[in-house]
C-alpha cells in the first residue's frame, strides 16, 4: 500500500486555509501576513501553487531541501499543518493585501 | 576581495528583463509564458522576489538544491542568464496575463 501524504491520488489530508491562517502567524514574519515577503531573499507565497508549497515544506521537513531559516520551522510540522499552510497561502491574492 | 555574483553590495551584474524574456522561452513550458505555472508541483514565478529567484537558480546550478526538472536547465546558465531570467519573472504581474 502506497502511503500518500498529500497531493497524490485521493488526498488523505485536505488543507484548511482558515487553520492555515492561524498557523501562519510565525511564517508571516518573513513571508508577510499577506504572503508578500518583506525580505528580498525570501519568496512571496501569496497565490503560489498549493501542491508546490506542500512539496517544499515536506522537503524542508525531511532535509531534502536545506535552508537555515526554513529548516527549523519545518521540522515539527505535521502533514495537516503543511496542507493547511499551503492552502492558506495558495488562496491569497498574488498581489498581496489590496 | 569578495567576489559577488549578484545581489550583494554593488551588483556586478544587472538583470535585463527583455533579455530574460527571450531566455525564458523554455522556462515558460512549465512556468507559463506569463509566469503562472501549468503544473501544480511547479511554482508560479510571476512577480516573485528577484533576489530569491537568483539564489534558487544559483543553488540549482551548483547542486545545492536538486530537482530532476530544474537541474538540467540550470546547469549551463551564466550569471547574466540568471540575473536576466530573474528580472524578467520578477517584473511580471503576479496574477499572470491580464
From TrEMBL, chains A, B:
Q: Is Electron transport tagged as a keyword?
A: yes
Q: Which UniProt keywords apply?
A: Electron transport, Heme, Iron, Metal-binding, Transport
Question: Matching Pfam families, A to Z?
Answer: Cytochrom_C
Q: Which residues form the Cytochrome c domain?
A: 15-93
SUPFAM superfamilies from the xrefs? Cytochrome c (SSF46626)
User: Entry's PANTHER family?
Assistant: CBB3-TYPE CYTOCHROME C OXIDASE SUBUNIT FIXP (PTHR33751), CYTOCHROME C4 (PTHR33751:SF9)
This protein is called what? Answer: Cytochrome c
